[in-house]
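Students often ask what a 'structure token' actually looks like in practice. Rather than answer in the abstract, let us consider AMP-binding protein, a protein of 198 residues. Its sequence is given first.
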Amino acid sequence: MTATAPVGFAAGLAHFGDRTALVGPGGAVAYRELDARVAAVADRLGPVRRLVLLAARNDVDTVVAYLAALRGGHPVLLADASQVDGLAAVYDPDVVVDGDLRERRPGTAHELHPELALLLSTSGTTGSPKLVRLSADALRANADAIAEYLGIRPTDRAITSLPLHYCYGLSVLNSNLSAARASCSPTSPLWTPSSGRP
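Now compare that with the structural description of the same chain:
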């Protein structure tokens, strides 16, 4: 099955040129550079829809891989890095991104629903964790609604201190990359433990 239409905020990043998209320990990443990095990873993922298991860290590389998969129409199973081996054993993803991109097969072993864009794990507090399925339309609608309600402006900068594999942490990223195209700081801590203060 070929890739479906990408989620809106994952496409057309270069349109915003040299404006800051992300800020990390290595400095600022402009939208044009982010677009080039996303395009390179999307090319590696290819045109055949594949299940991508992504070890979510609050860093620029995770954001690049996430946006590349969405751009290519590849469903993403977003997980805490400590869960990757267990989830890979159960769900047999076609690609695993955990620091590097590892293709487990050239195509896909799955019949992926055409609307599936994202799989997020529940906490498992009432039993074993379950995966929640989200469509591209749901991701787009959620990001747009949050951006509109909060009045996010292009001059705003969000701090993504919550893990990206949490729905709230991911919604901060998605809503800021949505229509407003504000920048996010995926690895900017509010304080360091050694300083003892915010």
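One point worth highlighting: Residues 188-198 have pLDDT under 50 and may be disordered. Ask yourself how you might have guessed this from the sequence alone, and why that guess would often be unreliable.
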